[in-house]
Structure formats: C-alpha cells, structure tokens
Design goal:
Chain lengths: ~300, ~300
C-alpha cells in the first residue's frame, strides 16, 4: 500500500488559461504548471483563483487528464474538488484519487447558507465513504469571505478524529490569523495547516504551519518559495516584507483578472488575460496602472518566461 | 414560429424526492408534479427549495427528460438552470429550451462575490447567445439572501432592453417589497414580476405583478392559487392572512426539510423526508413540533394525497 506524502511548502491555485471563445486551453495550463514546478511550487489547480467554479466537472476532469498525460507528476497535484452538488464532488474527487493526486482541496457545498456542522460533517463524510479510496487525502478549504460557508474548529476536529488518514490538512483563507493559529494549536497528528495567503507565510511557519497556498504564487513563485525554504534565516522578515509589498499591489485590483493580466504581459500571450464571466478582464486604465505600479516597484517579473 | 405564453399565477419550486441512497426518484417527482398541476400550480422545478444546487447538471437533465417522458406539459415547466459554471448553465438551458419548457428561472453565477453588473450582464448575455434558441424565455432569479449575488434594477433593465423577447420576467426573493415594487413600476412591456413568497402575493397582484413562486406552494398549492385567482375579491385580505399563518409556521423550521417532512407524513411515503447534505432531515422534537403545530392550527393538509 502506498502512503501519500503529505503536502508542505508553497502551492499555487493555478490560474486556468482560456481561449478567446472561453474554452480551456489545456496545453497552456500544462506549460504554466511546468513553470511553477520548476520554481518548486505545488499545483493547487481548480482553486478559487483558478476560476474552478466557473468550470463544469467534465471540464475539470479533462484538464486533470491532460496534465497527467503531459507527464505532470500526480503527487504534486492538489486539485480543488468541492462542488455544490455532492454528485459532482464525488465524481471529481474519485477521479483525482484514482489518478494518484497527492491530495484534493475540498470546499464545503456552498449554495445553501446557515447550514449546521452536522450537515457539513455528513457532507464530507458521504463524499469520503462514496469515493471509498484509501489513497484519498483531503485538505479542507475554509474560505468564508467567498464561499460564505465556513468550517468551524469543532467541525474540523470531528472530521480529523473520524478520518485521521484522509482528512490531513486545511487551507485557511479566512484572513483571520487567530483561526489559523488555533488550527495549528490543536496539534492533530501531522495535520497540515496552510495559510491562504503568503502574507501569513512567515507567521504560519513560526507557529508550526505547513506553508501557504496563495494566488500570487502564480506570478511570484520563486520568492514565496524562497521564504518558505529560509524562514528560519535572518533575512526572513525582510523577505516577508517584500512579498507583502507585491501582495498589496495585486490586492488593490480584482485578483484573478490582475494575475492573468500580469501573466499575459510577461509571457507575451495576450489570450492569458481571458476570464470567464461573471469576472471581467482587466483593461484600460486599470491595466495600465497595474503594470506601471509593478514596474515602478521593480516587480518586472522577467522570471515568468524563464 | 411559436411564441411562448409568458407565465403568470402560482408556481412551486418543486421539492425533489430522493431515495435513501440519495439518488433522485424520478417517478415520485412525476407524481408530485401531476398533483401540483391538478391544483393549478406551475412547476418551477430545480429551484432553491428543490435542492437544485445539490444536483449535477446531468441529474437535472435526466429528471427533466423523465418529466417530459411522463407526459408533463413542457409549457408548465420553468426549470432553474443557473449554475456557477457558464458551461453548465448553457447545457441545462439549451436542453430546457429544446424541450419547449415555458421558461427557465436563472440564477446568476454565485460563487464569486462582489462581481460587477457588467460581469453579470456578460454572463447572462453569453448564455443567451450560446443557447441561441428563439424559444428561450428567461425569468431572472434574484435571491441575495442565499446566492449572495443579486441583480440590481439597472442590470435587469439592461437585460430587458437588450433581450426583450428573451428576458421576460423575474422572481424576486429579496424579501424587500420596495425592490419588487420598483421592478413592477419600471413598466417594461409584458414583463412578469413574481414575488418569491406568497406572503407578498396580494401586494404583488395589487401592484400589477404576475403571481408568486413560493416554497410553500409545495404543500399549500390550492389555497395559494385561490388567492391568486380571487385577489380582487372581498375575501382577499382574509385569505392572505390565512396563507401567512401557515407560512410563518413553516418559516420557523428549516424550510426544505420541513416541506419534505410534511409531504412524507401526509403522503405516507417516509422516503420523502430525505434531503441531500449539507441539509439535514427534520427529525425528533423538531419534527413532532412541526406536525403538532400544523394540526393544532388545522393545517392537516389532507389535500396532499387527493
């Protein structure tokens, strides 16, 4: 029996390249994933910043197959598989487990609001039982600002206690450090707590966390990984400061269109800027402002096409 | 060229029957739809109260086919077709239009929050253009308390002006009467404004609205239709009062499990109480309390098995 190594380090919710007709471009995704891997960043494809929830289950399965077919190592993949419908979540999660993905990042069902912990426990539990694959490794995805349905500490505890070999970590995108800290302090055996932004990376490492899964790792992977790798060094605080500066620039624009605009510019592939509705491409003044601010601060990101 | 008659009157977001293994029970849905039609209530299948967002697109297509195969008149059907992913929304909407459904009820994509009106306009517009079927009739679905992504008056106006023969109505589940009233007062040609609850039915009819699409029409269809049909009569206010009383009872429980518990009891089909996670079946004290309150107030609903 193979035992999957649990994730640690920096992962990117890899942005999904679309063609002008809004279809996904698998070849371009493969290239982006290869580039991220070369920067030592793992692949949390189908995250919030991947526009995962703007794609059907069938489209996600096709893209995952394309990545594997292109030789991307399955152990480096942590696809997002949590959908509104349990049938979609089971189908996508089962596929990811069958392919040997290192883990999956699982949103709770997010349409119905004010649901109980019992209902959410049952939701995760049904998925685990139905997938029925001992290779499955779930990283819970707590992102209340977007999903509006969050995962309480008590719920996480119930899941870890009931499924210690399956529920092995969490991405905390609450933006609430006290929650991240509390998750680490519970001290569940080898449980991996990822900050949802590199703004908390150093704090998370010092507290005993596992790393971060962050949007900006799409465009700044090497520097974020560098801090992860050297968080105990004397330069760590200065590195964090540098990361924060880029993060703050990006956060003053709509994140997904801004990430794609940056990649489009520095890869010289204009189609990278395409987003699916309801999002809108960054254009005109906003685009010019983003590029000018980045270049003024010296974030030219030539590394993007290395 | 056939021109679909626009909907008016009372529609139920038909609750979806699941088997104990959580699979959908198409035959039972057919029976429920026939019963609702016999009470003169239209079929807004795949609404919020149908647990539509707990089912995959494939499951919804299968159920829709089963309804048509069983002889349910397509003109009476207003399936919910708005999903997070544009590809799902297009697939389901195209299917509904092809089957000749009287209309579709369309949520905006609801995962990404704080999206712009331009982005939402583009979302509806892309779906309409991609479906490319002049039989398509869209009723917009505004339900900010659940979807968290609402439809502004300005957005609705842009859609109606751009697609006057396609965007023909709205269900307003904001619970904000001033918004419903404002939609009616815009006076778009033959635009159908449905209240999202029968609590606003009389007010809506008096203001020039088209009716209501309401959860409790699943269990109280005849009385709600009666008010719709006789809203100009002397008894209208008293009828509204009666409807409100049942509504208030139901609203003091989680609505979907409570509707299913009532149907299970009065149809003597216990499986009707099954809900998909993250919802939870109404059981124990809550169940007993609901039934006892209903019976004490004389809402025995023998009509359910008529």
């Amino acid at each position: 029996m193979t035992t999957a190594v649990r994730f640690s380090g920096v992962l990117a919710p890899v942005v999904t390249p679309f063609n002008r007709d809004l279809s996904a471009n698998a070849q371009r995704l493969v290239e982006q994933c290869r580039w991220l891997l070369s920067k030592k960043v793992g692949l949390a494809v189908f995250g919030t910043n991947s526009e995962a929830n703007s794609m059907s289950t069938g489209e996600k399965i096709e893209l995952l197959d394309a990545l594997l077919d292109a030789g991307i190592e399955s152990a480096k993949l942590m696809p997002g598989t949590g959908c509104c419908a349990i049938t979609d979540t089971v189908q996508l999660t089962r596929h990811a487990a069958k392919l040997g993905c290192g883990g999956v990042l699982m949103l709770p069902p997010f349409y119905y609001k004010n649901v109980s912990d019992d209902g959410l426990f049952r939701s995760y539990s049904e998925v685990i039982e139905r997938v029925g694959d001992n290779r499955l490794r779930i990283y819970l995805y707590h992102i209340p600002p977007v999903a509006q349905v969050g995962l309480s500490l008590e719920l996480v505890e119930r899941l870890v206690v009931r499924y210690p070999d399956t529920v092995v970590g969490i991405k905390d995108s609450s933006g609430d450090w006290s929650n991240t800290e509390a998750l680490i302090e519970r001290g569940w055996d080898d449980f991996r707590v990822f900050a949802g932004s590199e703004a908390f990376l150093l704090q998370n490492m010092r507290a005993g966390g596992a790393g971060c899964i962050s949007a900006t790792a799409n465009i700044n992977p090497a520097a974020i990984h560098q801090l992860y790798a050297s968080w105990q060094s004397a330069s760590a605080d200065a590195q964090q400061q540098q990361l924060n500066e880029l993060r703050q620039i990006m956060q003053s624009f709509p994140m997904i269109p801004a990430l794609k605009a940056v990649i489009a510019r520095y890869s010289r592939q204009a189609e990278w800027s395409v987003v699916r509705p309801p999002l809108e491409e960054l254009a005109g003044d906003a685009y010019s402002k983003l590029i000018s601010v980045l270049e003024k601060r010296g974030f030219g990101m030539p590394g993007l096409t290395d």
